[in-house]
Protein backbone atom coordinates (compact mmCIF):
# COMPACT_ATOMS: atom_id res chain seq x y z
CA UNK A 1 0.00 0.00 0.00
CA UNK A 2 2.80 2.32 0.95
CA UNK A 3 4.71 1.48 -2.19
CA UNK A 4 1.64 2.01 -4.30
CA UNK A 5 1.18 5.54 -3.02
CA UNK A 6 4.81 6.28 -3.81
CA UNK A 7 4.59 4.84 -7.28
CA UNK A 8 1.49 6.85 -7.99
CA UNK A 9 3.25 9.93 -6.77
CA UNK A 10 6.22 9.42 -9.04
CA UNK A 11 3.94 8.84 -12.00
CA UNK A 12 2.00 12.04 -11.64
CA UNK A 13 4.71 14.51 -12.51
CA UNK A 14 2.28 17.15 -13.61
CA UNK A 15 0.71 16.99 -10.19
CA UNK A 16 4.04 17.42 -8.48
CA UNK A 17 4.79 20.53 -10.47
CA UNK A 18 1.24 21.78 -10.08
CA UNK A 19 1.30 21.42 -6.34
CA UNK A 20 4.68 23.12 -6.15
CA UNK A 21 3.39 26.18 -7.95
CA UNK A 22 1.18 27.33 -5.10
CA UNK A 23 3.77 27.32 -2.32
CA UNK A 24 6.19 28.95 -4.72
CA UNK A 25 3.73 31.72 -5.46
CA UNK A 26 3.14 32.28 -1.76
CA UNK A 27 6.83 32.30 -1.09
CA UNK A 28 7.63 34.82 -3.80
CA UNK A 29 4.56 37.03 -3.57
CA UNK A 30 4.32 37.17 0.20
CA UNK A 31 8.04 36.89 0.76
CA UNK A 32 9.01 39.81 -1.42
CA UNK A 33 5.73 41.68 -1.03
CA UNK A 34 5.65 41.84 2.74
CA UNK A 35 9.40 41.69 3.19
CA UNK A 36 9.97 45.45 3.57
CA UNK A 37 7.01 45.93 5.94
CA UNK A 38 8.19 43.02 8.05
CA UNK A 39 11.67 44.43 8.20
CA UNK A 40 10.40 47.87 9.25
CA UNK A 41 8.37 46.27 12.01
CA UNK A 42 11.65 45.03 13.40
CA UNK A 43 10.96 41.34 12.88
CA UNK A 44 13.93 40.68 10.64
CA UNK A 45 14.02 38.85 7.32
CA UNK A 46 10.53 37.81 6.21
CA UNK A 47 11.71 35.10 3.81
CA UNK A 48 13.43 33.25 6.59
CA UNK A 49 10.31 33.63 8.71
CA UNK A 50 8.04 32.53 5.91
CA UNK A 51 9.99 29.56 4.55
CA UNK A 52 9.13 27.13 7.38
CA UNK A 53 5.50 28.22 7.12
CA UNK A 54 5.42 27.49 3.42
CA UNK A 55 6.97 24.09 4.04
CA UNK A 56 4.16 23.48 6.53
CA UNK A 57 1.63 24.63 3.99
CA UNK A 58 2.96 22.24 1.36
CA UNK A 59 2.77 19.39 3.82
CA UNK A 60 -0.76 20.06 4.99
CA UNK A 61 -2.10 20.41 1.45
CA UNK A 62 -0.37 17.34 0.07
CA UNK A 63 -1.17 15.27 3.14
CA UNK A 64 -4.87 16.10 3.33
CA UNK A 65 -5.15 15.56 -0.42
CA UNK A 66 -3.60 12.14 -0.30
CA UNK A 67 -5.88 11.19 2.58
CA UNK A 68 -8.83 12.38 0.56
CA UNK A 69 -7.66 10.19 -2.32
CA UNK A 70 -9.61 7.38 -0.69
CA UNK A 71 -12.72 8.97 -2.16
CA UNK A 72 -11.04 8.79 -5.53
CA UNK A 73 -10.25 5.13 -4.96
CA UNK A 74 -13.81 4.54 -4.01
CA UNK A 75 -14.90 6.25 -7.18
CA UNK A 76 -12.58 4.21 -9.37
CA UNK A 77 -13.44 1.00 -7.58
CA UNK A 78 -9.95 0.25 -6.38
CA UNK A 79 -10.97 0.55 -2.75
CA UNK A 80 -13.18 -2.52 -3.08
CA UNK A 81 -10.25 -4.57 -4.29
CA UNK A 82 -8.38 -3.73 -1.11
CA UNK A 83 -11.41 -4.23 1.11
CA UNK A 84 -12.05 -7.81 -0.01
CA UNK A 85 -8.40 -8.72 0.49
CA UNK A 86 -7.51 -10.74 3.57
CA UNK A 87 -5.71 -7.83 5.21
CA UNK A 88 -7.00 -6.05 8.28
CA UNK A 89 -8.56 -2.67 7.74
CA UNK A 90 -6.12 -1.22 10.20
CA UNK A 91 -3.20 -2.32 8.03
CA UNK A 92 -4.76 -0.87 4.92
CA UNK A 93 -5.42 2.43 6.61
CA UNK A 94 -1.94 2.49 8.08
CA UNK A 95 -0.22 1.69 4.81
CA UNK A 96 -2.14 4.36 2.99
CA UNK A 97 -1.45 6.93 5.62
CA UNK A 98 2.24 6.12 5.69
CA UNK A 99 2.38 6.36 1.90
CA UNK A 100 0.56 9.67 1.85
CA UNK A 101 2.73 11.03 4.62
CA UNK A 102 5.87 10.02 2.78
CA UNK A 103 4.84 11.81 -0.39
CA UNK A 104 3.87 14.89 1.61
CA UNK A 105 7.24 14.88 3.32
CA UNK A 106 9.08 14.59 0.03
CA UNK A 107 7.04 17.46 -1.29
CA UNK A 108 7.87 19.51 1.78
CA UNK A 109 11.57 18.80 1.35
CA UNK A 110 11.45 19.90 -2.29
CA UNK A 111 9.82 23.16 -1.26
CA UNK A 112 12.43 23.64 1.44
CA UNK A 113 15.20 23.38 -1.12
CA UNK A 114 13.38 25.77 -3.43
CA UNK A 115 13.20 28.22 -0.54
CA UNK A 116 16.92 27.80 -0.03
CA UNK A 117 17.43 28.55 -3.71
CA UNK A 118 15.46 31.76 -3.16
CA UNK A 119 17.88 32.90 -0.51
CA UNK A 120 16.59 31.21 2.63
CA UNK A 121 19.42 30.24 4.98
CA UNK A 122 18.75 27.63 7.68
CA UNK A 123 20.82 28.28 10.77
CA UNK A 124 22.10 24.72 11.01
CA UNK A 125 22.33 21.94 8.44
CA UNK A 126 22.90 19.30 11.10
CA UNK A 127 19.33 19.53 12.33
CA UNK A 128 17.94 18.45 8.96
CA UNK A 129 17.47 14.77 9.90
CA UNK A 130 15.45 15.82 12.95
CA UNK A 131 13.57 18.30 10.82
CA UNK A 132 12.65 15.61 8.30
CA UNK A 133 11.34 13.43 11.11
CA UNK A 134 9.13 16.20 12.45
CA UNK A 135 7.98 16.94 8.92
CA UNK A 136 7.01 13.31 8.54
CA UNK A 137 5.15 13.40 11.84
CA UNK A 138 3.21 16.48 10.76
CA UNK A 139 2.50 14.89 7.39
CA UNK A 140 1.28 11.73 9.12
CA UNK A 141 -1.09 13.78 11.24
CA UNK A 142 -2.74 15.49 8.30
CA UNK A 143 -2.90 12.38 6.13
CA UNK A 144 -4.69 10.63 8.98
CA UNK A 145 -7.02 13.62 9.18
CA UNK A 146 -7.65 13.40 5.44
CA UNK A 147 -8.32 9.66 5.69
CA UNK A 148 -10.75 10.21 8.52
CA UNK A 149 -12.70 12.77 6.53
CA UNK A 150 -12.58 10.68 3.38
CA UNK A 151 -14.00 7.66 5.18
CA UNK A 152 -17.04 9.73 6.00
CA UNK A 153 -17.63 11.22 2.56
CA UNK A 154 -19.27 9.41 -0.29
CA UNK A 155 -18.15 11.49 -3.20
CA UNK A 156 -16.09 14.49 -4.17
CA UNK A 157 -18.82 17.05 -3.56
CA UNK A 158 -17.89 17.53 0.04
CA UNK A 159 -14.33 18.08 -0.92
CA UNK A 160 -14.54 21.76 -1.78
CA UNK A 161 -16.25 22.33 1.51
CA UNK A 162 -13.37 20.76 3.36
CA UNK A 163 -10.80 22.78 1.51
CA UNK A 164 -12.58 26.02 2.34
CA UNK A 165 -13.70 25.34 5.87
CA UNK A 166 -10.91 23.20 7.17
CA UNK A 167 -7.62 23.26 5.30
CA UNK A 168 -7.58 26.99 4.51
CA UNK A 169 -8.31 28.11 8.08
CA UNK A 170 -5.87 25.57 9.43
CA UNK A 171 -3.23 27.07 7.21
CA UNK A 172 -3.96 30.76 7.68
CA UNK A 173 -4.37 30.56 11.46
CA UNK A 174 -1.32 28.44 12.07
CA UNK A 175 1.23 31.21 12.22
CA UNK A 176 2.64 29.97 8.93
CA UNK A 177 2.61 33.44 7.38
CA UNK A 178 2.67 35.74 10.42
CA UNK A 179 4.19 35.55 13.89
CA UNK A 180 1.85 34.48 16.67
CA UNK A 181 3.27 37.03 19.09
CA UNK A 182 1.31 40.19 19.80
CA UNK A 183 -1.89 39.12 18.07
CA UNK A 184 -5.42 39.68 19.38
CA UNK A 185 -6.20 37.12 22.05
CA UNK A 186 -8.88 35.38 19.99
CA UNK A 187 -6.49 34.63 17.13
CA UNK A 188 -3.80 33.24 19.42
CA UNK A 189 -6.37 31.05 21.13
CA UNK A 190 -7.52 29.61 17.83
CA UNK A 191 -3.94 29.09 16.73
CA UNK A 192 -3.35 27.15 19.89
CA UNK A 193 -6.00 24.62 18.78
CA UNK A 194 -4.57 24.36 15.28
CA UNK A 195 -2.28 21.33 14.96
CA UNK A 196 -0.43 22.98 12.10
CA UNK A 197 0.74 25.75 14.45
CA UNK A 198 2.81 23.19 16.29
CA UNK A 199 4.17 21.69 13.09
CA UNK A 200 5.19 25.05 11.71
CA UNK A 201 6.59 26.11 15.05
CA UNK A 202 8.83 23.06 15.23
CA UNK A 203 10.05 23.62 11.65
CA UNK A 204 10.79 27.20 12.54
CA UNK A 205 12.75 26.17 15.57
CA UNK A 206 14.79 23.63 13.64
CA UNK A 207 15.39 25.97 10.73
CA UNK A 208 15.75 29.40 12.28
CA UNK A 209 16.07 28.71 16.00
CA UNK A 210 12.98 30.68 16.97
CA UNK A 211 9.99 29.11 18.63
CA UNK A 212 6.67 30.07 20.10
CA UNK A 213 5.67 26.93 21.99
CA UNK A 214 9.00 25.12 22.38
CA UNK A 215 10.09 22.03 20.48
CA UNK A 216 9.16 19.51 23.18
CA UNK A 217 5.61 20.83 23.41
CA UNK A 218 5.38 20.83 19.61
CA UNK A 219 6.40 17.21 19.28
CA UNK A 220 4.23 15.96 22.12
CA UNK A 221 1.17 17.76 20.79
CA UNK A 222 1.82 16.55 17.24
CA UNK A 223 2.20 12.96 18.38
CA UNK A 224 -0.90 13.03 20.54
CA UNK A 225 -3.05 14.48 17.78
CA UNK A 226 -1.59 12.06 15.24
CA UNK A 227 -2.51 9.11 17.43
CA UNK A 228 -5.95 10.54 17.95
CA UNK A 229 -6.67 10.95 14.24
CA UNK A 230 -5.12 7.60 13.44
CA UNK A 231 -7.45 5.91 15.91
CA UNK A 232 -10.43 7.89 14.71
CA UNK A 233 -9.54 7.26 11.06
CA UNK A 234 -9.14 3.52 11.60
CA UNK A 235 -12.46 3.41 13.33
CA UNK A 236 -14.31 5.16 10.52
CA UNK A 237 -12.35 3.28 7.91
CA UNK A 238 -13.34 -0.05 9.41
CA UNK A 239 -16.94 1.09 9.20
CA UNK A 240 -16.85 1.73 5.46
CA UNK A 241 -19.47 -0.31 3.69
CA UNK A 242 -19.87 -0.14 -0.02
CA UNK B 1 -21.01 -29.85 1.97
CA UNK B 2 -21.72 -27.16 -0.60
CA UNK B 3 -19.23 -24.40 -1.17
CA UNK B 4 -21.76 -21.62 -0.68
CA UNK B 5 -24.62 -22.08 1.72
CA UNK B 6 -27.03 -19.27 2.41
CA UNK B 7 -29.88 -19.58 4.91
CA UNK B 8 -32.63 -17.04 5.59
CA UNK B 9 -30.36 -14.18 4.54
CA UNK B 10 -31.89 -10.74 5.02
CA UNK B 11 -30.50 -7.24 4.49
CA UNK B 12 -32.41 -4.12 5.39
CA UNK B 13 -31.44 -0.55 4.58
CA UNK B 14 -33.72 1.38 6.89
CA UNK B 15 -37.25 0.54 5.82
CA UNK B 16 -36.13 -1.00 2.54
CA UNK B 17 -35.67 -4.75 2.54
CA UNK B 18 -33.09 -5.33 -0.19
CA UNK B 19 -32.68 -9.05 0.41
CA UNK B 20 -35.58 -10.83 2.06
CA UNK B 21 -35.15 -14.22 3.70
CA UNK B 22 -33.10 -15.76 0.90
CA UNK B 23 -31.80 -19.34 1.01
CA UNK B 24 -29.79 -21.17 -1.62
CA UNK B 25 -26.67 -23.23 -2.06
CA UNK B 26 -24.04 -23.67 -4.72
CA UNK B 27 -22.23 -26.96 -5.19
CA UNK B 28 -18.48 -27.16 -5.56
CA UNK B 29 -17.26 -26.75 -9.14
CA UNK B 30 -20.58 -25.43 -10.35
CA UNK B 31 -21.16 -22.48 -12.66
CA UNK B 32 -24.01 -20.66 -10.99
CA UNK B 33 -25.95 -17.74 -12.49
CA UNK B 34 -27.72 -15.33 -10.19
CA UNK B 35 -30.27 -13.42 -12.22
CA UNK B 36 -32.82 -10.74 -11.55
CA UNK B 37 -34.06 -7.34 -12.72
CA UNK B 38 -32.29 -4.15 -11.66
CA UNK B 39 -32.53 -3.53 -7.95
CA UNK B 40 -33.66 -7.06 -7.18
CA UNK B 41 -30.94 -7.60 -4.61
CA UNK B 42 -28.21 -9.30 -6.65
CA UNK B 43 -25.36 -6.97 -5.84
CA UNK B 44 -26.40 -6.70 -2.22
CA UNK B 45 -26.26 -10.49 -1.92
CA UNK B 46 -22.82 -10.60 -3.52
CA UNK B 47 -21.60 -7.88 -1.19
CA UNK B 48 -22.76 -9.87 1.81
CA UNK B 49 -21.11 -13.03 0.48
CA UNK B 50 -17.85 -11.15 -0.06
CA UNK B 51 -17.68 -9.48 3.37
CA UNK B 52 -18.34 -5.96 2.06
CA UNK B 53 -21.70 -5.76 3.82
CA UNK B 54 -22.88 -7.40 6.99
CA UNK B 55 -26.27 -9.13 6.81
CA UNK B 56 -29.14 -7.91 8.99
CA UNK B 57 -29.97 -11.51 9.77
CA UNK B 58 -29.49 -15.01 8.40
CA UNK B 59 -26.48 -17.19 7.87
CA UNK B 60 -23.83 -17.50 5.18
CA UNK B 61 -21.23 -20.23 4.90
CA UNK B 62 -18.60 -19.83 2.24
CA UNK B 63 -16.25 -22.80 2.06
CA UNK B 64 -17.41 -23.58 5.59
CA UNK B 65 -16.59 -20.14 6.98
CA UNK B 66 -18.98 -17.44 8.12
CA UNK B 67 -18.06 -14.02 6.63
CA UNK B 68 -19.12 -12.11 9.72
CA UNK B 69 -17.14 -14.36 12.08
CA UNK B 70 -13.99 -15.14 10.11
CA UNK B 71 -13.78 -12.61 7.27
CA UNK B 72 -10.12 -13.30 6.51
CA UNK B 73 -10.61 -17.01 5.83
CA UNK B 74 -13.55 -16.16 3.62
CA UNK B 75 -11.53 -13.51 1.80
CA UNK B 76 -8.83 -16.05 1.05
CA UNK B 77 -11.26 -18.47 -0.49
CA UNK B 78 -12.91 -16.21 -3.04
CA UNK B 79 -11.85 -13.98 -5.88
CA UNK B 80 -14.07 -11.30 -7.32
CA UNK B 81 -14.52 -9.30 -10.49
CA UNK B 82 -16.63 -6.27 -9.73
CA UNK B 83 -19.23 -4.63 -11.86
CA UNK B 84 -17.06 -1.51 -12.04
CA UNK B 85 -13.40 -1.78 -12.89
CA UNK B 86 -11.35 -1.90 -9.73
CA UNK B 87 -7.86 -1.69 -11.16
CA UNK B 88 -5.43 1.03 -10.31
CA UNK B 89 -5.13 3.00 -13.54
CA UNK B 90 -1.85 4.57 -12.53
CA UNK B 91 -0.10 1.22 -12.15
CA UNK B 92 0.97 -1.22 -14.85
CA UNK B 93 -0.75 -4.54 -15.46
CA UNK B 94 2.07 -6.33 -13.71
CA UNK B 95 2.03 -3.99 -10.73
CA UNK B 96 -1.70 -4.47 -10.31
CA UNK B 97 -1.16 -8.22 -10.17
CA UNK B 98 1.82 -7.87 -7.88
CA UNK B 99 -0.13 -5.67 -5.50
CA UNK B 100 -2.90 -8.22 -5.33
CA UNK B 101 -0.42 -11.03 -4.71
CA UNK B 102 1.21 -9.11 -1.87
CA UNK B 103 -2.15 -8.35 -0.28
CA UNK B 104 -3.03 -12.02 -0.34
CA UNK B 105 0.32 -12.98 1.12
CA UNK B 106 1.63 -15.06 -1.77
CA UNK B 107 5.37 -15.79 -1.47
CA UNK B 108 7.42 -13.99 -4.10
CA UNK B 109 8.46 -17.00 -6.15
CA UNK B 110 4.98 -18.47 -6.48
CA UNK B 111 3.59 -14.99 -7.05
CA UNK B 112 5.88 -14.30 -10.01
CA UNK B 113 5.19 -17.70 -11.54
CA UNK B 114 1.44 -17.36 -11.19
CA UNK B 115 1.41 -13.83 -12.56
CA UNK B 116 3.33 -14.89 -15.63
CA UNK B 117 1.13 -17.91 -16.14
CA UNK B 118 -2.13 -15.97 -15.75
CA UNK B 119 -1.09 -12.96 -17.81
CA UNK B 120 -0.07 -15.31 -20.61
CA UNK B 121 -3.36 -17.09 -20.22
CA UNK B 122 -5.38 -13.90 -20.75
CA UNK B 123 -2.93 -12.80 -23.44
CA UNK B 124 -1.67 -9.71 -21.68
CA UNK B 125 1.86 -10.86 -20.91
CA UNK B 126 3.47 -8.72 -23.63
CA UNK B 127 1.67 -5.66 -22.25
CA UNK B 128 2.59 -6.23 -18.64
CA UNK B 129 4.58 -3.01 -18.45
CA UNK B 130 1.84 -0.82 -19.82
CA UNK B 131 -0.17 1.45 -17.57
CA UNK B 132 -3.69 0.16 -17.10
CA UNK B 133 -5.20 3.49 -18.10
CA UNK B 134 -4.06 2.80 -21.66
CA UNK B 135 -5.99 -0.50 -21.72
CA UNK B 136 -9.29 -1.03 -23.52
CA UNK B 137 -12.38 -2.17 -21.60
CA UNK B 138 -11.92 -5.76 -22.71
CA UNK B 139 -8.28 -5.84 -21.70
CA UNK B 140 -9.12 -4.45 -18.28
CA UNK B 141 -11.72 -7.15 -17.78
CA UNK B 142 -9.25 -9.83 -18.74
CA UNK B 143 -6.71 -8.42 -16.35
CA UNK B 144 -9.30 -8.36 -13.58
CA UNK B 145 -10.18 -11.98 -14.20
CA UNK B 146 -6.52 -12.92 -14.14
CA UNK B 147 -6.17 -10.99 -10.91
CA UNK B 148 -9.23 -12.65 -9.38
CA UNK B 149 -7.58 -16.01 -10.00
CA UNK B 150 -4.14 -15.12 -8.73
CA UNK B 151 -4.57 -16.45 -5.21
CA UNK B 152 -6.28 -19.61 -6.51
CA UNK B 153 -9.68 -18.97 -4.96
CA UNK B 154 -12.22 -21.73 -4.60
CA UNK B 155 -15.02 -19.45 -5.71
CA UNK B 156 -14.91 -16.67 -8.25
CA UNK B 157 -17.64 -14.03 -8.09
CA UNK B 158 -18.39 -12.08 -11.22
CA UNK B 159 -20.82 -9.18 -10.94
CA UNK B 160 -22.03 -8.43 -14.46
CA UNK B 161 -18.63 -9.25 -15.89
CA UNK B 162 -19.58 -8.77 -19.53
CA UNK B 163 -21.38 -5.45 -19.21
CA UNK B 164 -20.40 -3.23 -22.11
CA UNK B 165 -18.18 -5.79 -23.83
CA UNK B 166 -18.51 -6.78 -27.47
CA UNK B 167 -19.52 -10.38 -28.35
CA UNK B 168 -15.94 -11.24 -29.34
CA UNK B 169 -14.53 -10.29 -25.96
CA UNK B 170 -17.46 -11.86 -24.18
CA UNK B 171 -16.98 -15.21 -25.87
CA UNK B 172 -13.27 -15.04 -25.32
CA UNK B 173 -13.80 -14.35 -21.65
CA UNK B 174 -16.20 -17.21 -21.20
CA UNK B 175 -13.79 -19.55 -22.90
CA UNK B 176 -11.24 -18.65 -20.20
CA UNK B 177 -13.75 -19.05 -17.43
CA UNK B 178 -14.98 -22.43 -18.69
CA UNK B 179 -11.40 -23.56 -18.99
CA UNK B 180 -10.53 -22.49 -15.45
CA UNK B 181 -13.70 -24.05 -14.15
CA UNK B 182 -12.85 -27.39 -15.76
CA UNK B 183 -9.16 -27.51 -15.03
CA UNK B 184 -9.01 -25.97 -11.58
CA UNK B 185 -12.49 -26.90 -10.39
CA UNK B 186 -13.18 -23.30 -9.46
CA UNK B 187 -16.78 -22.58 -8.60
CA UNK B 188 -18.10 -19.63 -10.59
CA UNK B 189 -20.89 -17.42 -9.30
CA UNK B 190 -22.00 -14.72 -11.69
CA UNK B 191 -24.74 -12.21 -12.36
CA UNK B 192 -25.70 -10.93 -15.77
CA UNK B 193 -28.48 -9.29 -17.74
CA UNK B 194 -27.68 -11.26 -20.87
CA UNK B 195 -29.99 -14.23 -20.67
CA UNK B 196 -28.39 -16.15 -23.51
CA UNK B 197 -25.09 -15.87 -21.64
CA UNK B 198 -26.62 -17.44 -18.54
CA UNK B 199 -28.34 -20.08 -20.63
CA UNK B 200 -25.17 -21.04 -22.42
CA UNK B 201 -22.79 -21.07 -19.50
CA UNK B 202 -24.59 -21.73 -16.25
CA UNK B 203 -25.26 -25.18 -14.91
CA UNK B 204 -27.65 -23.81 -12.37
CA UNK B 205 -29.64 -20.60 -12.19
CA UNK B 206 -31.45 -18.75 -9.44
CA UNK B 207 -33.75 -15.82 -10.18
CA UNK B 208 -34.20 -13.19 -7.53
CA UNK B 209 -36.87 -10.48 -7.56
CA UNK B 210 -37.90 -7.96 -4.92
CA UNK B 211 -35.29 -9.47 -2.61
CA UNK B 212 -36.70 -12.99 -2.80
CA UNK B 213 -35.54 -15.98 -4.80
CA UNK B 214 -38.52 -16.88 -6.93
CA UNK B 215 -37.13 -19.90 -8.70
CA UNK B 216 -33.97 -21.95 -9.11
CA UNK B 217 -32.84 -24.91 -11.17
CA UNK B 218 -31.05 -25.80 -14.38
CA UNK B 219 -31.77 -23.65 -17.46
CA UNK B 220 -33.77 -26.56 -18.84
CA UNK B 221 -35.92 -26.86 -15.76
CA UNK B 222 -36.71 -23.15 -15.78
CA UNK B 223 -37.80 -23.31 -19.39
CA UNK B 224 -39.93 -26.37 -18.80
CA UNK B 225 -41.53 -24.84 -15.77
CA UNK B 226 -42.62 -21.72 -17.64
CA UNK B 227 -43.24 -23.48 -20.92
CA UNK B 228 -40.94 -21.17 -22.85
CA UNK B 229 -38.40 -21.73 -25.60
CA UNK B 230 -35.63 -19.48 -24.27
CA UNK B 231 -34.38 -18.42 -20.90
CA UNK B 232 -35.23 -14.82 -21.70
CA UNK B 233 -38.86 -15.77 -22.17
CA UNK B 234 -38.80 -17.75 -18.95
CA UNK B 235 -37.21 -14.79 -17.15
CA UNK B 236 -39.87 -12.38 -18.37
CA UNK B 237 -42.63 -14.83 -17.54
CA UNK B 238 -41.32 -15.10 -14.00
CA UNK B 239 -40.47 -11.48 -13.25
CA UNK B 240 -43.06 -9.65 -15.34
CA UNK B 241 -42.47 -6.91 -17.86
CA UNK B 242 -42.56 -3.86 -15.65
CA UNK B 243 -39.43 -1.74 -15.85
CA UNK B 244 -37.89 -1.29 -12.44
CA UNK B 245 -37.25 2.12 -11.02
CA UNK B 246 -34.08 2.26 -9.06
CA UNK B 247 -33.08 5.32 -7.17
CA UNK B 248 -29.67 6.52 -8.27
CA UNK B 249 -27.34 6.02 -5.35
CA UNK B 250 -23.98 7.61 -4.78
CA UNK B 251 -22.39 4.82 -6.76
CA UNK B 252 -24.41 5.58 -9.87
CA UNK B 253 -23.55 9.22 -9.64
CA UNK B 254 -19.89 8.33 -9.38
CA UNK B 255 -20.21 6.06 -12.36
CA UNK B 256 -21.66 8.86 -14.43
CA UNK B 257 -19.04 11.29 -13.35
CA UNK B 258 -16.32 8.82 -14.15
CA UNK B 259 -17.63 8.53 -17.67
CA UNK B 260 -17.41 12.28 -18.04
CA UNK B 261 -13.90 12.23 -16.71
CA UNK B 262 -12.78 9.56 -19.07
CA UNK B 263 -14.28 11.46 -21.96
CA UNK B 264 -12.24 14.47 -21.04
CA UNK B 265 -8.93 12.68 -20.76
Structure in a nutshell:
The complex is a heterodimer of chains A (242) and B (265). Chain A has 10 helices and no strands. Chain A has 242 residues and is mainly α.
Number of strands of chain A: 0
Structural class of chain A: mainly alpha
Number of domains of chain B: 1
Using the CA coordinates, give the radius of gyration of chain B. 18 Å
Protein model, in words:
The complex is a heterodimer of chains A (242) and B (265). Chain A has helices spanning 2-11, 13-40, 46-75, 78-83, 89-117, 128-152, 157-172, 185-192, 195-208, 215-238. With 242 residues, chain A is mainly α. Chain A has one domain (2-238). In chain A, helix 6 (128-152) runs antiparallel to helix 9 (195-208). By secondary structure, chain B is α/β, with parallel strands linked by helices. Chain B has a single domain (4-85, 153-264), classed as 3-Layer(aba) Sandwich (Rossmann fold). Chain B has helices at 42-49, 71-77, 93-103, 108-121, 137-149, 167-184, 195-201, 219-226, 231-239, 250-264, and strands at 4-13, 16-26, 31-35, 57-62, 78-81, 155-159, 187-191, 204-209, 212-217. The interface between A and B is medium-sized, with 25 and 36 residues.
Descriptive terms for the model:
heterodimer; A: 242 residues; mainly alpha; elongated; B: 265 residues; alpha/beta; six-stranded mixed beta sheet
Amino acid sequence: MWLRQLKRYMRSRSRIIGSLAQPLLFLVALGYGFGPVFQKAGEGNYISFLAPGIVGMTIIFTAVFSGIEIIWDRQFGFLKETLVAPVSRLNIMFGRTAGGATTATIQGIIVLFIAIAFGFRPFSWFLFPVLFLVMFLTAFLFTALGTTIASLLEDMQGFQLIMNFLVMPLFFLSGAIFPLQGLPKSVTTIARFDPLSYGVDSFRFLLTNTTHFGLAVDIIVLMAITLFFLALGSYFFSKIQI
Amino acid sequence: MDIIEVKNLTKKFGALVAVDDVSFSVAKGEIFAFLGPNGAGKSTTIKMLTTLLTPSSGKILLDGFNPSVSPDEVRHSFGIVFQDPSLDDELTAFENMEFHGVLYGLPKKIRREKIEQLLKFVELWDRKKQLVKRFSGGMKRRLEIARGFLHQPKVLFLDEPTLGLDPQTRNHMWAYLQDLNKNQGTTIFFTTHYMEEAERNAQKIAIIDYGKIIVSGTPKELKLQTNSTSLEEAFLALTGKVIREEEAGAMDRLRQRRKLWQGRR
